[in-house]
Amino acid sequence: xxxxxxxxxxxxxxxxxxxxxxxxxxxxxxxxxxGLAAALFGVALAAAGCVRIDTAGSAQPDLAVLPAGxxxxxxxxxxxxxxxxxxxxxxxxxxxxxxxxxxxxxxxPPPAPFGVPQDPPVIRQIARAREAIMYRHWRExxxxxxxxxxxxxxxx
Length: 156
Fold this sequence. Notes:
By secondary structure, this protein is mostly helical. The protein has six helices and two strands, in the order ααββαααα.
């Protein structure tokens, strides 16, 4: 009699919680909703042009920044970013700016003493251009990229 009372209480608690007595039904429902959300997110990214989905179904970022045969220099990456901004392609522009910034930081002089700004102004121009791209301010981004191209810190 005590056992039946415990089972009855358990059923009542489960009913109040909105669950049935089946043990794995909730897990399967969560997995289905998570899988559906991931699939919808992938479709949304593909529709926005952020990723390219190949025939195998795996999503790969579409970040071919430089045309074939061009050297990977800071100037070419900044020019590619300017072309992507002109075409209003934020992913390509951001990727090109990231690569230009990486090249600049790799060739940067040794760290300055404490209290002295370490990054050259061209790094700040690239950061401002990236922020302008994020807000879809294309003319402003183009201005920052052209100022970065004019900076004497860049290798010619």
